[in-house]
Amino acid sequence: MMNYPTFATIGLLSLSLTLASCSGRKGQNAVSATDSVATNTITTDQVLSIDTTLSYISWRGFKPGGEHFGKLPISSGVVNLKERTLYAGAVIIRMNGISVEDLKADEGGDKLKAHLESEDFFDVEKYPEARFELTGIPAEGLKLSDAQVLHGNLTLKGVTKNIAIPIASCVLDINEGTYTFTSSVFTINRADWGVKYGSKSFFTGLGDKFINDDIELSFVLVTRSVQQEDILPRS
């Protein structure tokens, strides 16, 4: 179980960080990476845990004439969420749990997974976790009905950048007492986090052996259930 003294010490959501083969195509909803900013502080007022069995990040990468895709697991996470209003949140992503879904394990999937986990890409032995921490939420919180974009610091391979993630939906299931956050597909540039292998941003003369810098990501985050009286506005 993680300790969450402040939002800045943990990490939320995405995430689907990728990786590997990326094609020459441009991804959807490209997001710019800027300098990190102050994060929102997680308080003890209605802290909801992320259900790691139902939450995940999807990734898709491209290279000339091909693509690969898979998922990344969420190892832990929390959000400050009360009466359908978001105040803070963070998730930790287990980088050594990356899966490849377009190839069978014995037909190249295990080899690709090992390459993505190596120093060429995410160096998971040195950086076993990535994290996303929410930023820019006003003191009065962000109503889920208004949550079209979530800003946050993404830390990957020891590099922290601020990005804006487009949100497709934020849904409260009254019967189950759970919230589900779903992002739209968005694209980050891996070069911003120093993921150099096969990148034209760092190397010349690659010919058609390059791997696109753009990584398409999307995520589904589901909270654990809370009591109905805690998630409905009080009269």
From TrEMBL:
Lineage per the UniProt record: Bacteria, Pseudomonadati, Bacteroidota, Bacteroidia, Bacteroidales
PANTHER family to which the protein is assigned, alphabetical: PROTEIN YCEI
Origin superkingdom: Bacteria
Gene3D superfamilies xrefs: Lipid/polyisoprenoid-binding, YceI-like (2.40.128.110)
Entry keywords, A to Z: Signal
Domain Lipid/polyisoprenoid-binding YceI-like positions: 47-224
Organism: Porphyromonas catoniae ATCC 51270
Keyword check for Signal: yes
SUPFAM superfamilies, per database record: YceI-like (SSF101874)
Pfam families, alphabetized: YceI
Signal peptide: 1-20
Name this protein carries in UniProt: YceI-like domain protein
